[in-house]
Amino acid sequence: MVIINCSHLELLLEALKKEGYSIIGPTRSGTAIVLDKIHSMADLPVNLRDEQRPASYRLTQRNDQAYFGYASGPQSWKNFLFPPVLSMMKARREGKSFKLENGEDRGGVSGNGKDSPMLAFFGVHACDLHALRIHDKVLSEGPYADQYYKMVREKLFVVAVNCTEAGGTCFCASMGTGPRVTEGFDIALTERINGSVHEFIVETGSDRGARMLKGIPNRPIEKPGAIDLEKMMEQARSRMGRKLETNGLKEKLQENFEHRRWDEVAKRCLACANCTMVCPTCFCSTVEDVTDLSGGNAERIRKWDSCFTLEFSYIHGGSIRPSIRSRYRQWLTHKLSSWIDQFGTSGCVGCGRCITWCPVGIDITEEAGAIAQEQSRLSTNS
């Protein structure tokens, strides 16, 4: 580990751009911190923090000029690896035949992964790194890899940030996914501010990460500095806004498909799908074929979908999950239970976005915890 002065971090951005990377990072847009292309440190959400509660998000001013003094915004990094809308194929009428063309994402990149961009993610928190790892397993390591995801992911450069500012809906400590980054990064930063001293503790996680740091002024970390890092991580763990007991949770949810709690939450749930749209691990999609009015052009589009929509489970004769109760149950039990059977890990990384951006403030930790606690009481009494 080394120390980089705050003013020298701009050199890292310049080095990334020189290597041909388009840099995606957090920036302020209106009343939220979003992920978008950034060009300099000035684009980062300096001196801002986010206050998050169920169905509530707002930005407030800090007083320390921190660049990464926030928890998370409404977007996740999947927006750039698994785009919300992807044109997979186009066909244009030419006389009595059609000419096929590759589709494109909104950035003009081929939908089959050709000419994929070189992206650098700047400011990835530990929970979102775990989400990327989940998507790797689902979208690129199986027998039917998503070519767009795979080719963009292989070129991806990751600058992670240890999260020192836990949010009001965060529970990554409960899920074992944060706040400290442990793997899956090229460079990891920890922002340290002490009075007039503003600097970053820097770790490298790959050879290309080490190469990217060459030429950037730094100094070896002093022993108290390493201790400071651990203290900051422990403080972030203690400030988590939510907790979830995961021991035995998988089995408890599987044993309670008819629990009355599903009826209670269904009375509040709007089935709006906000939770799945902001979730960094949800990957459900659908494919649509569309044509223009003249019939001269056709296009096949992949779009994000959600298990909260009535059409998602539609088969001949109707939907398998016609009620909001059944759709909410499917989402929560898949995230925290059957996902483990499928992929060997939980589908939740504890980022808390689904709680913050639910219009009625439904809390996944509260709902899962209520079922698990009652099951524990029943087991104890029996």
Task: Explain what this protein looks like in three dimensions.
With 382 residues, the protein is α+β, with helices and mostly antiparallel strands. The protein has 13 helices and 16 strands. The strands form 4 sheets. The chain has an 8-stranded mixed sheet with strand order 3-2-8-9-10-11-1-12, sandwiched between helices. Strands 7-6-14-13 form a 4-stranded antiparallel sheet, with no helix packed on it. Strands 4-5 form a two-stranded antiparallel ribbon. The chain is globular and about 65 Å long.
Low-confidence stretches: none
Alpha-beta content class: alpha+beta
Which percent bin holds the helix content? Answer: 25-40%
Number of helices: 13
- Radius of gyration computed on alpha carbons: 22 Å
Strand order of the largest sheet: 3-2-8-9-10-11-1-12
- Could you give the order of the helices and strands? EHEEEEHEEEHHEHEEHEHHHHEEEEHHH
Report the sheet with the most strands, covering strand number, pairing sense and barrel closure: 8 strands, mixed
- From the spread of the alpha carbons, the general shape counts as globular
Mean residue pLDDT: 91
Terminal Cα span: 53 Å
Strand percent estimate: 15-25%
Number of strands: 16
Detail the topology: elements first, then pairings:
Layout: E1 2-5, H1 9-18, E2 22-29, E3 32-37, E4 48-53, E5 56-61, H2 78-81, E6 85-94, E7 97-102, E8 119-124, H3 126-140, H4 147-155, E9 157-161, H5 172-175, E10 187-194, E11 197-204, H6 207-213, E12 219-220, H7 223-238, H8 249-254, H9 260-266, H10 274-278, E13 285-291, E14 297-304, E15 314-315, E16 318-319, H11 324-343, H12 353-356, H13 364-381
Parallel strand pairs: 2-8, 8-9, 9-10
Antiparallel strand pairs: 1-11, 1-12, 2-3, 4-5, 6-7, 6-14, 10-11, 13-14, 15-16
Helix pairs in contact: 9-11
